[in-house]
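Protocol step 4 of 5: obtain the predicted structure for the target chain.
Materials: sequence only (see below). No template structures provided, no constraints applied. The aim of this step is simply to have a reference model before the mutagenesis design in step 5. Sequence pasted as it appears in the construct record:
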Amino acid sequence: MATLLWIIAVILVVSGIYVILARRDLLWGIVLIVVGLLVGPGGVSIFNV
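Step 4 output (structure tokens):
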């Protein structure tokens, strides 16, 4: 389960960086990065609350 959370978190953070750099949409990029950090098992996982 931890591996799956890491993969989802990485995808979300990379997508957030892509949105910020390529599409110039700062708000959605920040939202994706924050959600990625919340989902990741290294941070505060929303699935463990």
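Step 4 remarks: Residues 16 and 22 are 10 Å apart (CA to CA). The mean pLDDT is 84.
Proceed to step 5.
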